[in-house]
Amino acid sequence: EILQFYTNTDSLSWDVVPRYMDYMSDIAFDYAEEFSRRCFLKHQTAPVYNYLFTYFSPRAFSAKMIQMAYPDHEADQFIGCGACHADELIHLFKTNIDKIPFTPPTDDDLVLMNNLIKAWTTFAKTGNPNCVELNVIWKPDTIQNPCFMEMGKVWKSTDGILFPERIEFWDRIYEKYSYLY
């Protein structure tokens, strides 16, 4: 049932890598993030700000690690998978990780880095990430009006939850099989 949902096939191959990456992301991060989001919104009185980091850069950990892990395969086939968990951190913090060579930031990277730093420091100071430099309003997420900031080359406020079709699938799976736990 799960394999069919993600790959629309009964077997795995290099052709379904992007959808397999969605599956891995969902079970490791995305469904837990949605569960946490629901808990925060239900029990927290302070505003909740949600985001999806979609900016893909050759500087990202994921891009470099995929190239190291699969040197015999074209790394380009993984580009469609997009940014991965924690890829934004390379744009915020200097790292000294062995075997991952430093790549200087591009002009687009620098714009993104400035936006991230400004939004995160403004949020740390005020509890609200909005600042003039972003040129977009980052709306607080609510149960009635779910929304998130998509952080790509251009930042945009987006209505709804992250990955709704996949979250609804996991809601159904947990409802269907929760009696086992």
Automatic annotation (TrEMBL):
Residues 2-170 form the Carboxylesterase type B domain. This is Carboxylesterase type B domain-containing protein. SUPFAM superfamilies: alpha/beta-Hydrolases. InterPro entries: AB_hydrolase_fold, CarbesteraseB. The lineage of its organism: Eukaryota, Metazoa, Ecdysozoa, Arthropoda, Hexapoda. Keywords: Glycoprotein. It comes from the Eukaryota.
